[in-house]
Specification:
Order of helices and strands: EEEEEEEEEEEEEE
Oligomer: single chain
Number of strands: 14
Largest sheet: 5 strands, mixed
Shape: globular
Strand order of the largest sheet: 1-2-3-4-8
Length: 187
């Protein structure tokens, strides 16, 4: 759970997905720890030497590592931007029971906490979150009993050959080979 994906966003910055470090149940609490890069999606400007921090990153002025864009992730095994809208889809591999797909709309200010390791998917996992901690639910999760054990992120279809699939986010599961489609309301 050390790496997952690299991609340039529509804003020209490099986004880097890092897992929580690999130990079961995240014993170091990396997913929620804003002083480590593990369990996060980072956002950097590679036009600087060695790189620069975008001024609008959520922790650019303190409160956490300035590279952090999103946190509370276990193993973000592929993410992608919808090339038509700029929305961000994150497939986050679960621990024992639940796989999830997280969503961040284009224009987000970042700093979103997706809940790991207090939650796995939309379900309680470990410990009690501090009072007032805001965590964002995944847009979909699925239990291992119904379809696999390791979500793999995909892409939003924007081709011309299949008009009925326009705007459908396609993702799968490594263990079963199942492929699903997710359509954002209003598409």
């Amino acid at each position: 759970h050390n790496g997952g994906c690299l991609a340039f966003g529509p804003d020209g910055y490099l986004y880097i997905a890092l897992g929580d470090g690999g130990s079961a149940n995240d014993p170091q609490g990396n997913g929620q720890n804003l002083d480590t890069l593990l369990g996060k999606i980072l956002r950097i400007d590679v036009r600087g030497e060695p790189y620069a921090i975008p001024a609008d990153n959520p922790f650019a002025n303190g409160g956490g590592r300035p590279e952090i864009w999103a946190y509370g992730l276990r193993n973000p095994w592929r993410f992608s931007f919808d090339r038509a809208t700029g929305d961000l889809y994150i497939a986050d591999v679960g621990q024992n029971k639940w796989e999830e797909v997280d969503f961040q709309p284009a224009g987000s200010a970042g700093g979103i906490n997706y809940g790991w390791n207090y939650r796995e998917g939309q379900h309680e996992f470990k410990g009690t979150p501090p009072q007032g901690l805001v965590m964002t639910d995944p847009v979909v999760d699925y239990h291992h009993s119904v379809g696999g054990c390791s979500v793999t992120g995909g892409y939003v279809y924007r081709g011309s050959a299949l008009s009925a699939w326009q705007g459908v986010y396609l993702y799968g599961d490594y263990c079963t080979g199942f492929v699903w489609g997710l359509l954002k309301q209003g598409e």
